[in-house]
Write the C-alpha cells for this entry.
Amino acid sequence: MIPVAAPRFDLAECTSEAERGFIEALHARAETGAWVADVWRVRDGRITLSVCPCDNDPAYNCVLRTLRVDFDGTTVWFGPDETHQFATELDPAHPGVSVLSRQSVPGLAAAAADWLEREMRRPIVRHEWDRPEFSRRLWVLADTGEGLVLRDSANVFRRSDLGPPDRIVPVGGPAA
C-alpha cells in the first residue's frame, strides 16, 4: 500500500488528560508499526481518526477503505466508516464495529491499534476486466471477497455477464 504522510496530531487540541494519553499511546504504536493516521480531529468531545489503505499503483488514486477510531475519554469505537467522510456515527449494530469501555486509556488505545493493524494486514486484490468497449476494476478483500471499490469506464456496472476477471492483482496487505 502507498505510505501516507500526515502531520503529527497537535496535542494542544486535546481537551483532557485522557485524550492526550490516548493519542500519545496511539502515536507510540503507530511509530512502532510504521503506520500513520490520515485524518485526526477533536470535535464535540470526541477524537476521531482514520487510516485509509490505498492501492499501491499510482495509476489508481483511490482510497479503498476508511478504518476509523473514535474516543470520547472513556469509550473507544472502531470499525469501517462506510461514508469515508465521518458523516455518520460508527454504529455498533453494523458488522465490524466494536465498542469498548471500562478499561484504562492505554488499554483502549492498544485495542484500537490492534484492530487497525489487523485490518491493515488484510489482503486486498484488484480484479481487472478489459473489454473493447470498457474496462472494469473491482477492489476486494481477498480473505472474504467483500467488494470495496468499483470503477467502470463505461458506467455499465454489469457483473453477471463478465465471467472471471482477466487479472487479479494484489494491492494491499501481505499479498502485495
Notes: Residues 17-33 form the longest helix (17 residues). Residues 4 and 36 are 7 Å apart (CA to CA). Strands lie at 39-43, 46-51, 67-71, 75-80, 98-101, 124-130, 135-141, 147-152, 167-172.
